């Protein structure tokens, strides 16, 4: 690998030799239906299998989702701490680690798109000041194609990014899904409240989501705009 580095990269890497590597704040982002929660649960399980302690967290939003547990559609789950909007997660983890002496190997955060900016700053402090890696999993954009507040903060403050990929669900399309298209009564819609429970099964609800590539997302949006469909 070193041979492929430029002279500038080599000189920079030399500067960092001997520097103390601190824990990182990760953002693993994707669309709905891309198995992010399943990845989180399996990643957390790897730590606990080695006898290490982890701290799974989920922000509380006004949805029907269950409290105290992170669940995946594939049927696996892990217990979690419910993070309220104004709660300081850095103080909480600091208390566990410094005051109570609990050794935590990693903090895991599900539904990270619903974090507040303050939460993301606090997670940054957990990595920087307590030297505990923080892995956040969440959606990049909402059904209108814009970044969630929590995702914006993570793109600003995290230092490792990984896209959790899945395919566009339009028949025959082989492109990567980039957007979550919201359907109502069988038709894509682009207006309405942003925070909605992620239902990806048509039969369970009148409103549901289909993940699509940028081309199919934009063609849905063009059709929606041309027809002047209102919610
Ligand atoms: Zn497509």
What would you note in describing this structure?
The chain is α/β, with parallel strands linked by helices and 231 residues long. It contains six helices and eleven strands. It folds into two domains: 144 residues, 3-Layer(aba) Sandwich (Rossmann fold); 65 residues, no CATH class. 31% of the residues lie in helices and 23% in strands. Helix 3 packs parallel to helix 4 and helix 4 runs parallel beside helix 5. The structure holds zinc ion (ZN). The site of zinc ion has 8 residues, from helix 6.
N- to C-terminal distance? 53 Å
Name the structural class.
alpha/beta
CATH fourth-tier homologous superfamily of the largest domain: P-loop containing nucleotide triphosphate hydrolases
Give the H and E element order.
HEHEEEEHEHEHEEEEH
- Reading off the top of the CATH hierarchy, the class of the largest domain is best stated as Alpha Beta
Q: Mean pLDDT across all residues, rounded?
A: 88
Number of E-type strands? 11
Envelope shape = elongated
Tell me roughly what share of residues is in helical segments: 25-40%
The neighbouring-strand order within the major sheet is 5-2-6-7-1-8
CATH T-level fold name of the largest domain? Rossmann fold
The kinds of small molecule bound in this structure are: zinc ion
CATH second-level architecture of the largest domain: 3-Layer(aba) Sandwich
């Amino acid at each position: 690998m070193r041979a492929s580095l430029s002279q500038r990269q080599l000189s920079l890497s030399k500067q960092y030799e001997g520097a103390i590597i601190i824990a990182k704040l990760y953002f693993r982002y994707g669309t709905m239906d891309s198995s992010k929660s399943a990845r989180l649960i399996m990643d957390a399980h790897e730590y606990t299998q080695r006898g290490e302690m982890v701290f799974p967290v989920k922000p509380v939003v006004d949805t029907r989702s269950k409290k105290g547990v992170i669940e995946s559609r594939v049927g696996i789950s892990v217990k979690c701490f419910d993070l309220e909007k104004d709660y300081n997660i850095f103080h909480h983890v600091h208390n566990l680690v410094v005051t109570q002496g609990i050794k935590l190997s990693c903090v895991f955060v599900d539904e990270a798109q619903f974090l507040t900016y303050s939460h993301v700053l606090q997670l940054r402090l957990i990595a920087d000041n307590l030297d505990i890696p923080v892995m956040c999993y969440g959606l990049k954009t909402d059904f209108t194609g814009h970044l969630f507040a929590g995702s914006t903060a993570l793109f600003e403050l995290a230092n490792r990014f990984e896209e959790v990929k899945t395919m566009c669900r339009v028949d025959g399309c082989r492109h990567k899904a980039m957007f979550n298209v919201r359907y109502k009564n069988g038709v894509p819609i682009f207006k309405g409240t942003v925070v909605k429970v992620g239902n990806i099964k048509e039969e369970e609800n009148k409103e549901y989501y289909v993940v699509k590539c940028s081309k199919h997302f934009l063609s849905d949006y063009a059709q929606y705009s041309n027809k002047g469909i209102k919610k």
